[in-house]
Amino acid sequence: MALGLILHSIGIITVMIAIGVGLAKTFHFNADTREVFISLIVNVGMPCIILSAIFQIEIDESVIRKIFLVFLFSIVFNVLGIGIGYLFAVVFHKKVNRAKELAILSGLGNTGFIGIPLCAVLLGPEGALYAAIFDAGVDFTIWTVGALLLQKNPRIGFGMVRTMINPPLIAIVVGMIMVLVGYHPPFFMRDLFDRLAAIAAPLAMFYIGIMTISLIQSSSASFRNSRSTIWLPVTVKLVLMPVFAVLIGKALSLDEILLQTFLIQAAMPTLTLSSILFAKFSADEEIGIVTTIISTIAALFTIPVMVTLLNLYLLR
Q1: Comparing C-alpha atoms, which of 274, 112, 291 is closest to residue 204?
Q2: pLDDT: is 278 or 91 the higher one?
Q3: Residue 290: Cβ within 10 Å count
Q4: What does the H/E/C string look like for 217-246?
Q5: Residue 316 DSSP SS3
Q6: Band of the pLDDT at 80, cuts 50, 70, 90?
Q7: What domains does the chain contain, in order, with CATH numbers?
Q8: Shortest CA distance to 57 belongs to which of 154, 127, 155, 136?
């Protein structure tokens, strides 16, 4: 993966986020506008990225095996990240009762909003497909391990399964079924998927820019209260986890496209959903907001550095 392409993509993302920051000054960002952005990204853009990728690459037995491998790797890797985050929290912040929140913030990344569009740009349709499968593993981990970790009285039931069903996951299942039964959608549908897929990355970056300004304006006290702990999830998520992804992937002798996908997805900042997840289970919502902002900004610098350094290691 060429450094120029990485810097080019990160530069475009930075400009898009800056546009979002500018847009934040033109309207009032509230719950309704937030839902519009999320609905367009999650319900339209991301499913179309997945369907566009599925219908652009040849799905054979090798690709299907890789899909199952990516899904299993994602779950194991994310659980490992949560475990490392919890261990670090216990060791370095014994007096702070935030170990569970710090563990989730350390282990789970924004592999949907940022990861899938970025993999689509850097690695093409095949990378986008594997990135979507990786994100499905993140969703599975969020609503199983993450939910159980945050619950005061952990319960496993149908509600947990229902929360894991979302448009991107449905797109993966429907697309794979179409491929397996040999159905090829007409050019009109494929062209529609391609065009709608293009909205995901800009909208996601605009949303991050708008959300960042909105949260900074309303959460200055949160920054002050969380500054002593914020380094931990940011360091684990943006530095340690990409290194572990490459080491594990290389130990498994994975091919280049899978290694690159794992590296990019592992390097993603903390998931945007964290504050919502914490609010749902009455956890510390403030640290989720602050970590999302700081890690997203920091990722603009760490992603090109980590991807470049670890790619040099892969070429050895």
Answers
A1: 112
A2: 91
A3: 27
A4: HHCHHHHHHHCCCCHHHHHHHHHHHHHHHH
A5: coil
A6: very high
A7: 3-314 (1.20.1530.20)
A8: 127
Nearest to 306, CA basis, from 56, 109, 76: 109
Residue 284 contacts residue 98 (beta carbons within 8 Å): yes
Altogether, the residues listed in the chain come to a count of: 316
Residue 107 CB contacts under 8 Å (≥ 6 apart), including other chains: 78, 79, 80, 81, 82, 83, 84, 85, 141, 236, 237, 241
What tokens were used for 267? 């390097």
Q: How many C-beta atoms surround the C-beta of residue 231 within 10 A?
A: 11
- Residue pair 226/287 in contact by the 8 Å Cβ criterion: yes
- Rounded Cα distance between 212 and 22, Å, is 11
Check whether 95 has a pLDDT greater than 70. no
Show the tokens assigned to 56: 């652009």
CA separation (Å) from 109 to 140, 196, 243?
13, 24, 15
Which residues have C-beta within 8 Å of that of residue 11, sequence separation ≥ 6? none
Rounded average pLDDT over 109-136: 84
User: In whole angstroms, how far apart are CA 282 and each of 106, 151, 156, 277?
Assistant: 19, 9, 18, 9
d(CA 38, CA 115): 15
CB atoms within 10 A of CB 148: 13
Q: Which of 129, 123, 137, 136 is nearest to 60 (CA)?
A: 129
For the whole prediction, is pTM greater than 0.85?
no
pLDDT of residue 198: 82
User: pLDDT tens, 200-225?
Assistant: 778 877 877 887 777 666 655 555 55
